Amino acid sequence: MSAFRKAAFDVPRVFAPVVTPFNADFSVDTPRLVTFCRWLVGQGAGLALFGTNSEANSLTLAERRAVLDRVIAADIDPGQLLPGTGACALPDAIELTRHAAAARCAGVLMLPPFYYKGVSDEGLYAYYSAVIEAVGSADLRVLLYHIPQLTGVPITPALIERLTNAYPHTVVGIKDSSGDWSNTAGLLARFPGFKVFPASEALLGLGLPLGAAGCISATANLQPGAIASLLAATTLEARTTWVDQVSTIRLALQAHPLIPALKAVVAQHTRHAGWARVRPPLVPFGALAASTLLAQLEALGFAMPGLAQAGG
Description:
Structural class: alpha/beta
Shape: globular
Largest sheet: 4 strands, parallel
Helix content: 40-55%
CATH topology: TIM Barrel
Mean pLDDT: 95
CATH class: Alpha Beta
Number of helices: 14
Distance between the termini: 29 Å
CATH superfamily: Aldolase class I
Number of strands: 7
């Protein structure tokens, strides 16, 4: 077991839901993805492969398994990996979670099944419990993924309490993508020691003093080093400076359709236009919108140091 994996969630960490590059035929450009993953790790970020901003739910199970295998085969420590394994179909979630656990990933990030709405806590407990029991690994670490504005299926405090009581060494945290700070603050207060990851670095100034575990953020694809520096800051002054910097970039990006905007920025900084591709039904960022955003970021002094040299 890697040293990182042993302590993966012991200190505040930033994880990037890694954006997925596609070839012209919309197949995954795995070599380019691996290069980008190496750059992110070198900047101090862990890799939340197959997150929302990875277009995970536009990927097949076979693609997700193959990508994870290729990333690990590229000598990226699996202890840096927090792949998304939630799925609508229970057998798919079991397969993906079993594969990640066998690969010795630091943990998995699990959406609830998101097609049926009005699902009860009883049904969600049965889903998560069935995955955990089927995988049957003492090393499995599960972070729940709360993003009700997309799933329509909230993860309630009552469900968290039931899961952590039943699986205290397995269900260890949550990514709160609700955008509702009162929910994040409530989770931090109610579940001390439970790893609560806000989905925006802009909330870290509020979250870290209350025990936030870091962040799992879309814009960690663009500013992993700055967020890692924020989390490592040892003084309030330094932390405040970093919060202001990363929040400014976050706010600039979230004013746009986030996935196409992220990929347009990566395309610019890797000097590879193919990065701007998204898999349908998403559509690429428009040229005018991209030009405006890139000019705004340039005026803010934004950079992705070393990415072009890395061959991303």
